[in-house]
Design brief:
alpha+beta, 2 helices, Rossmann fold, 96 residues, elongated, three-stranded mixed β-sheet, single chain
């Protein structure tokens, strides 16, 4: 399961544990944000790390370009790479 962020993934880990599900034996859990605590969840959380400083830098650049050329409307598709931080909360699907 993919959670909106690491905090929601923590809640999901708790709920799965309380329902008797094994992570990652029965289900894999992946979060988003790579908060420092994610490495210490039980099990440690697989998560997506985003370079928010890079997003801020690119956003500011687009804003300044818009200010410098207010009549110009360019579509700006900007992709910022992310990293998958693989930890113990994810694994191959169970054999059925």
């Amino acid at each position: 399961m993919f959670a909106f962020n690491d905090q929601m993934a923590l809640g999901l880990l708790h709920a799965l544990h309380e329902s008797g599900r094994s992570v990652p034996g029965d289900v894999s859990v992946v979060g988003y944000d790579d908060i420092p605590e994610a490495a210490h969840f039980l099990p440690p959380l697989t998560t997506v790390r985003t370079d928010f400083a890079e997003i801020g830098t690119r956003s500011l650049r687009l804003l300044l370009d818009r200010i410098d050329g207010p009549g110009e409307r360019s579509r700006a598709d900007t992709l910022v790479p992310v990293d998958l931080v693989t930890r113990a909360s994810s694994g191959p699907p169970p054999v059925r």
